[in-house]
Amino acid sequence: MDVELVVVGALPQELVQVLNQTYFLHLLATEPQLVLPEGKSWLSMIAHSRLTPQTTEPVTLRDSVQRAVHNAFWSEALEALAGSISSQIDRLKLLLLDVKEAICPLFPNDHPILVTLSAPVPPTASPLMSTKFLLKDILVALRERAAPARDSIIDGILADLDAPRSPTSITTSSITSELALLIISTMKSIFALADAMKTDLNEFVVGFMTESQMRAILVQQAKTREKELVLEVWGQSGKDGKERVQEMWQAWVDELEGHDASEFQPRDKWIRRLIRALASTKPVSCTIPNLVSTDKSVQDAAGGNELPPQLLFSVPRLLYAQNYLQALVVAASLRSLTRLPAESNSRSDFMDRVWTLLEAEIEEEVSSATGSKIVNFADEVIRARRLISTPDKQEEDSLRAAVDRTLQYGDPVFLLLQKRMLAALAHQLCEPLVNNASHRSAPDQMQTGRTVGQRRPENHRPPPVMPSVKGFEDPVLVSRIEDIFGRLRQHVEWAHTVWFHNSFSDVDK
């Protein structure tokens, strides 16, 4: 299963990486079976690389800039600490505040080391030496709260802090410079140690979470990251892209045609607009702003079936659904050529064989049937027809021609069956979303073990199911339609909760 977004053109490598990481989170939250290895849990996916691929190479421009800024910061700090006593005191106050902020989450508020760091710096004739002793106390306090695996690291820092110094000269300036360098080096180590201990603490807490708790956290993280990234990518001139994506969404929805389009509620309207996009022979896509060009050939290459930014991370799976729906219509069209009676046991056998061929095309992302596939479909139709009659050569040739026509998107039978199926899907997808958990006033089971009565809320309704669609009654097709309906409903619910639940309400009014 490919977990990378497919984009056309050149994007900055750091943006591609962030997009792919966010898409992985999206899949983990919406269709985890696609990315969870067999036998692995949500917890194992979190623990492994903390959801972010690890690399030893600097992969972003931000990393390079941050390193340069950090180096300049420490160089300036070292220069200040090697200067006059007043310069040392002023800079040490700021540095110790940074140290306190870094280690604060690792201690209770009343811990002596935090109390000491919160107090004013006492007068001293040797600020650097006093700070050296304070840093030693900080390291000892950190060692008490660190995981055993960190002890050797802390012991090494302490040993370096206590090591006797042998300056090349005994001048005051050389001793001051060496001590300043030691202070800076130790503070850097404390910052790195604090980050490592926070990671240890987070992983410890994560380890005690249930799978359901873990999934809830991941889903929320995926929603937040997805929305923030889309707004950032579509933002202009340093502003967030909220207004821009709202306008693009509304323009896309307003393309819905039909005399009764204005009668739909906003939610129903965008769902029907999505179904219309999936009915197109052009693949759905969503072009990243960086790729938009004034060159018409580049714009045409985008595919002409653009979805709004809110659906960016759903596009790959919606493209899969688009191919899946077309395969269902092809299967139903071919079935209509067999003339098998409804009670025939061979009918499902025929559909199983045909669907196997079609499913292979979906997985291979073939946009249209090849010549070899058409021959295979025709052979299956003729094989099924022979169960009820003995077609002659002319009739077989006629059937092969009919199969060829049926696989054309402009075929009347194809269009009729497609219209029926998509209308049924749109109707069921427009059924209101129901969050049963929001109606509960008490848990299903009390801590004492007693259960709460199973009274249904007045506005409770079961989730919608797909009714039978004329022309798609075969059990194989019924099962596949239910499957794709469930997937599409997942995408609808996801977009609703990410973009329209307590946000963007002006679009969804």
UniProtKB/TrEMBL annotation:
Organism of this sequence: Mycena pura
Protein name as it appears in the record: Uncharacterized protein
Q: Which Pfam families match?
A: Tcp11
| Compositional bias per record (Polar residues), positions renumbered to this chain | 438-451
Q: Which family does it belong to?
A: Belongs to the TCP11 family.
Q: Where is this region: Disordered?
A: 438-469
The UniProt entry, under InterPro entries, shows: Tcp11
